[in-house]
Amino acid sequence: MISVQELHDVRRPSELRHLWHSLWRRTPRATFRQSPEFLEQQPISVGQRWRMFLVSAWNRPIGIVPFIQRTDRRSLGEVSVLSASNSEWGLFPGPVGPHSSTSFSAVVRHLVERDDSWDSLELPEVVAANKTPCRISNSINSGGLTAFRRTDRRLIGFELPNTWSQFWAGRDSASRSRWRELDQLSHGGVVQLIRFRPNGTQSGETDRDWSLLNMAGSLIRQQANESLVQQAQARFKRLHEMHGALVDEGCADIVVLLLDSMPIGFAYNIHCRMRVETLQMLVDPSVPGAADLLIAHMFQDEIARGDSWHVFLPTSVTGVVADWSMWQGATLRETLVTHYRRADTRSRLLRWLDGGQPIRHERAKHSTQC
After folding, report:
1. N or C end of the chain: which has fewer CB within 10 A?
2. Buried/exposed 253-281: b ≥16 CB within 10 Å, e otherwise
3. Are 270 and 279 spatial neighbours (Cβ–Cβ below 8 Å)?
4. Residue 57 near residue 106 (C-beta atoms within 8 A)
5. Phi and psi dihedrals of 229, rounded to 5?
């Protein structure tokens, strides 16, 4: 039997740290962005509050679904919104626990049937470009409700094969020719990849290695304009704050590319269960092809390590000039799926103002998740 309990006495994710981590370690396709340490680094505005829902099966916890409740002031009056936690690297990826779809469906049903404190429910789903989001909207539509979609930020995803030669076999001849030219250019100097990926507290590897992280400083100062410099400085301040928690969980992944002992590329990634997510990438704009060289050496190393997926999160490559057509990754969109609680005139006007489109499903049509 599935039951849902709202934890009214819990005001922040860290208060559930032990239970949260036990479920997070059993979450399929888990990411550090689902951890309480990451969530608590994201700012909560005045008037917003956490709402935590615990899903159990036969009295045993199987999922945690966190929401943020906020009040939006619109021309039609105040609107109470339940949404996923937001960050500059994307919205909260989904419920924590081994049965995320079951947990999410149970919480949506609970909110619709037993909670009238909200006007709209907003949840993210990552889908391939021009595809229909199904995972979340199916949960909403299964209760006889209508879901609407709004497309937001872009991500770029890569499925990594077993070998480097297989990776290039999956690209066209123009891409392979472009890579050979770029690879030959790099032979003018000594290229070296340094990667810092500690296993965390479970293996006793908790050295922070701040010196490697601080190598990004020179690249930040070399960005094309002051706006990009300020953006990079702000993001690295956040990364410094999260770095210790990432190391302890075995999720930190820092990559530095050196050319003749000088850093020309830097990436701070999250690594979790053979999946890599880039939070920040920087390159020396004075070195032609620096971004593509960094991507190439990073992918080649990940394939050798047995990683299966790499995604560049929103804002992670801002200001970076890379030849994405050469890499031929999958363009993914973070789509916001919304349900409006009431079917009155005010809700219809809200839907019109939000610009959401009704989600209509076709049989055997599935979403692509990063």
Report:
1. N
2. bbbbbbbeeebbbbbbbbbbeebbbbbbb
3. yes
4. no
5. -60, -45
